What we know:
Blueprint: H1 6-16, E1 23-26, E2 32-35, H2 37-42, H3 50-55, H4 69-76, E3 80-87, E4 93-102, E5 108-114, E6 128-129, H5 130-147, E7 151-158, H6 161-168, H7 170-187, E8 193-196, E9 201-207, H8 211-227, E10 241-247, H9 254-270, E11 276-278
Helix pairs in contact: 6-7, 7-8
Amino acid sequence: MAYLSEKSLRDALPLLDLLPEPVLWIGHDYRILWSNVCARGHYDVDSSFCYSSFHGLDRPCNEAGEPCPKAQAESLGAPVSVIHAHLERALEPGLFRVVALPLEAGGILEMHLELGPELIRDDLTGLFRKEYWLEIAQRSQALLERLDLPFSLIMLDLDRFKDFNDAHGHLAGDDLLRGVGNEVRRAMRASDTGCRFGGEEILILLPNSRTEAARQVAERICRAVGELAVETDNGPQGVSASLGAYTALPHQPLADAIHCVDKALYRAKEAGRGQVAEF
């Protein structure tokens, strides 16, 4: 066990107050007991709970399906590090590595190390990176569950993309991924969020969306990608895309919904590619 004593913490507070990163003392009940100058500039921390100040939630992160550094650190009795998206005073999400140190009397000392924008968006597709998207999606799913609203997922995979790279080179493959990312972003609603989920896989969350609406978006993307061509040494070339669409059941965990939309994608592949399938 590697607990930090409260006396050691109190002795260190003047130094911690000078650090250029947010540092907070969070009690066993999730209430923010102390914050340094930097943290007060980032968040609304007055008499607040960490989950409401950082995430806009009304319950702890672990109850909303996200990894909670406080719960993990207290359970392990050792420092932990997780990646979290935090909502700052400017109402813009920032991506942080959160380091939590457990305290002897309960609660934690938490430090937030901000990660650069290059870790938020994929540089080829312009969509979110998978880790950041999962943070946003888990939070959205928890909110939709409380409001008793549905959500849908769309998963896209480029057909025979490896063959395209082998035939035309990886630079042409990169150009194709950029074009696909542009088409996906054009097709999404303002409330939708997409990410590059794998090498040539894209995953989209559609809040408050049912099966028919999700299929319409997926069909639109399928057509746009099928018409896309990039310049290569062999002239304009492109590939088709297979897409799966799935509407989650009430209170279905996000991970289960992702598993289902993946199955829908493989149905599209097995049916001949270049089309949309549902699960």
